[in-house]
Amino acid sequence: MSGQQRVVVVTGGGTGIGKAIAARFLTDGDTVVISGRREQVLREAAHDLQTSHGSGMVHWHVCDVGDPEQVDGLTTWLTRQVAETVDVLVNNAGGTANLRDGASTAEAARYANDTLSGNLVGTFLMVHALGPQLRRPGGRIVNLSSIAAFRGGGDIYSAAKAGVVGLTYSLAGSLGPEGVTVNAVAPGVVLGTEFFGERMTEERRERTVAQVPAGRPGHPTDIAEAVFYLASPSASYVNGEVLHVNGGWVFGR
Fold first, then answer.
1. For the segment 52-64, what is each residue's pLDDT rounded down to a tens digit?
2. Domain spanning 7-245: which superfamily?
3. Residue 253's pLDDT is what?
4. Torsion angles phi and psi, residue 55, rounded to 5
């Protein structure tokens, strides 16, 4: 354990990478708040996390990070029911849907706006709303980008995740003088999540893994450990960085 209990907020914390991140902080004895859009998923995740990683305390709250009213609701609930000060904010919520072949321009616009809202706008809104509650000095923000931001793929999704990188750089410059570090993690292919769904056929899996020098896909715990490091006192002099966790598929730049 780090020796000092922290309050950690993890968006998209009910499944996959977000749940693994929450588990890592709970194991360290921290108080963790997970948020997401699906109440039942959060309720079950919180029970599972508390049972399996019970040295800390887990709370949950429904929130679509792209909805400003829900973000404000999460902030109000958090400060009244959990703690007035937040030590770590992990902006993990995101993902993308499929745009069907032959989609209309209106459908494409909805798809683009939804993707930007969930991945980029939501990250900005969470920092805007919870920023005043971040501990100064010592607060940590870790944003989840993607390998797609650096190699393309997923059209508007890659643009949104590239935007997360730009936002991370900007926030690092503005919040750094206040004692808050802002960094990003860019995962590669991580299985054991809802991201790929039925799109990850066995053929695609083999083709994808063949491109990874490490010879294997990532696991949510690989990303959780990277996030945990960036949020730790050991990373107090790391600010405005993107940590690539992709098995060597794309080198950092």
1. 987 899 999 999 9
2. NAD(P)-binding Rossmann-like Domain (3.40.50.720)
3. 66
4. -70, -20
